[in-house]
Write a structure and sequence with these properties.
about 220 residues; mainly alpha; single chain; about 85% helix
Length: about 220
Amino acid sequence: MGELAKNIRKDLTVEFRNRYALSVALAFAAVATIAASIALAGTVPAPRVQSALLWIVVFFAAMNGLAHAFVREEEQGTALFLRLHATPHTVLTAKLAFNIALLAAIEAVAIPLFVVFLQLEVRAPHSFVAIAAAGCLCLACAVTVLGAMVARAGGRGALFTVIAFPVVIPALWVLIGATARSLERPGPFDSGSVLFLLAFSGAMAGVSYLLFEHIWEE
């Protein structure tokens, strides 16, 4: 636990020192949301359109930032140090925790922007909050190991997005539908969608832990 905490603290310290991933992700979320608002010219889109726009913005904003977690290690020459002084599973867990925090920050900015600029009205707040949290976990679990693959291949954010999109399509489909339902009408807690997203997160995390040692050490 001490080694894990040290790695998480290192990632957060480095990010808050240069704020590259966070700044790029938040700037993209803000610009995309304002651009969508201008294009709609004050028209309030249907809940499913609002939901789709929200998760598209969150996804692409996240891809701009999440790829940097492993790419930064390769660019700064610290990847070899991590391989020598931390176990692969510790590295993956630290990066996963960092990516969850980054996604949470993106959602914390994107959702209020949608409320203001696209007049997002949440009618089932409990379901909406649970879906947003599950979506944050789901996207982070699905793409963290892909960031390591792209970094090892010498790729950058564009390649990361192309690889990640097919992997997260099932989760995005459920997220868009569940979020739309929470915007359309009050209703019972959407446990089915949340359970699917948590199961998807668990499956992707399990595959990531099985593959990561080979990806990281080779």
